[in-house]
Write a structure and sequence with these properties.
The chain has 18 helices and no strands. Among the domains are: about 75-140, Serine Threonine Protein Phosphatase 5, Tetratricopeptide repeat (Alpha Horseshoe); about 300-425. It has helices at about 40-85, 90-105, 110-120, 125-135, 140-155, 160-170, 175-190, 190-205, 210-225, 230-240, 245-260, 260-275, 280-330, 340-355, 365-390, 400-425, 430-440, 445-450.
Length: about 475
């Protein structure tokens, strides 16, 4: 070994050069060719370590880059599978999701997507297989257990479906899918209070299709419980997402009948008749709704017109009383402005407007109504003529003219009274009015009116079909 500074030859073990006194702990000079037993230079050892570190660092970087790329690729694949599922490209969705599960078997979302894509193709066995494989990796996954429960529900295996759904709810009591299908199972079991409890939880965050199913099921449960107002709200909420669901519309119509909302029932029948194929049940329902609506419209017309009739009689009686007073002591009135006559003329106009605001539906009531209108018009004209006659005083009063008009009015009034009497006998007006009051108070229901009208006593409702997706 030689000294790095002066080149003097050094013996083994020396710490300082005997020639120049320099330390000998530095890197040794290059060994001469042929020297035996000489160690490798330290610089080469350092270069080898650098190469080793570079290789290891590169491997680590490659690992993380590869993992990052795989994560990015999986994320991209999941997004693509979701898009395919939303747009109905179920085979492509299944292909994408299956590819991810092969690369990353612990990816929960990929398994769920694979199961949904297969379910959408009516491959319930394949969907169930995907879920069962995923459970090996995710035993405590509420979404997996609820998905399994949903698949079994549509296979009509309610006991096994319930087991999976309850297991999901043990893990997460707010799992939306589990609450939804537990509610549907309870509806099937006719345990309506429990069904409502589950379904109300499932409604929050539900998409369009599930919102329709949940609100439909809620409507069925509320209807069965006799809470028709809530049933109406639920059916309307379902139809808000799809107005073409005639099955839900039929249930809404039946709910309207239970609530004595006959006009609304008729309006809904007319709406769905435009696009719904005729069925025996729908035809029967339509005939009942039309008959009930017509009866209620008739009752409403009669009740409102009777109010007009009563007001007519008030003005008529006042006029008769004034005429009697005028005949007995004309001097007390002639040549004066009589506020009573002015008020009488104004009230006559109100009576006419009252009749004019009504629209009878049947031909019989139309004829009576026309008589009421013409007599009310003559009532106003007579009141105005009396007012003019009295104000004129002794200045050439047209006694003959007013006398003729009074006789004409009296004759017309008597004809009207005869028509009312005939109407009372033939149409049983008092009974209609009493029926109307009972409808308003809720004492009379649709079923009572159906029997009264002589319609077939068919059941008010039909058994609801299983609530499945669109």
């Amino acid at each position: 070994m030689n000294c790095d500074k002066c080149g003097a030859e050094l013996r083994e073990g020396l710490k300082f050069c005997p020639g120049c006194g320099a330390k000998t702990t530095g890197a040794a000079a290059s060994a001469k060719p042929g020297d035996e037993g000489v160690k490798r230079p330290a610089s080469k050892i350092q270069d080898n370590w650098k190469l080793f570190i570079l290789i290891v660092g590169g491997a680590i970087a490659f690992y993380f880059l590869s993992a990052g790329y795989m994560a990015f690729s999986s994320h991209r694949g999941l997004k693509l599978a979701e898009q395919r599922l939303r747009t109905g490209q179920y085979e492509s969705c299944e292909e994408q999701a299956a590819k991810i599960t092969r690369r990353r078997p612990k990816n929960l979302k990929a398994w769920l997507l694979l199961s949904e894509c297969r379910s959408a193709q009516d491959d319930s066995d394949g969907a169930l297989e995907a879920v069962d494989k995923a459970v090996k990796w995710h035993k405590k996954s509420a979404p997996l257990h609820s998905m399994r429960g949903e698949i079994l529900y549509f296979k009509n295996d309610y006991p096994e479906s319930e087991k999976s759904l309850l297991k999901a709810l043990e893990i997460d009591e707010n799992d939306r899918r589990a609450n939804q299908h537990m509610g549907l199972i309870r509806l099937h079991d006719k345990k309506h209070k429990e069904a409502v409890s589950y379904l109300e939880k499932a409604l929050k965050g539900a998409g369009r299709k599930d919102s329709i199913r949940i609100n439909h099921a809620l409507g069925e449960s509320y209807f069965a419980m006799g809470d028709f107002e809530k049933a109406e709200k639920s059916f309307l909420a379902a139809l808000a997402h799809d107005l073409n669901r005639s099955d839900i519309s039929v249930r809404l119509i039946e709910t309207y009948l239970a609530l004595n909302k006959f006009k609304e029932a008729k309006k809904e029948v007319d709406r769905i008749s435009v696009f719904t194929d005729e069925t025996k049940y729908l035809a029967s329902l339509r005939s009942r709704v039309y008959a009930l609506a017509e009866r209620v419209e008739t009752i409403e017309y009669v009740m409102k017109r009777k109010d007009c009739d009563q007001n007519f009689m008030i003005v008529y009686t006042e006029m008769q009383g004034f005429i009697n007073r005028l005949n007995s002591r004309a001097g007390s009135f002639m040549g004066k402005q009589i506020p009573e006559l002015t008020e009488m003329a104004e009230n006559s106009k109100k009576v006419y407007d009252c009749y004019q605001s009504l629209a009878p539906k049947s031909e019989y009531y139309y004829l009576v109504h026309t008589k009421c209108l013409s007599t009310a018009s003559l009532l106003g004209e007579t009141a105005a003529s009396l007012d003019g006659y009295v104000r004129s005083g002794d200045k050439n009063p047209d006694i003959q003219g007013i006398a003729d008009q009074l006789r004409s009015f009296e004759k017309r009034s008597q004809e009207l009274f005869d028509v009312w009497a005939k109407e009372q006998r033939e149409m049983k007006i008092d009974e209609l009015i009493e029926q109307g009051r009972k409808i308003e108070s809720g004492e009379i229901k649709a079923a009572d009116l159906i029997l009264d009208l002589g319609l077939p006593a068919e059941p008010e409702t039909k058994e609801p079909e299983k609530i499945d997706p669109e």
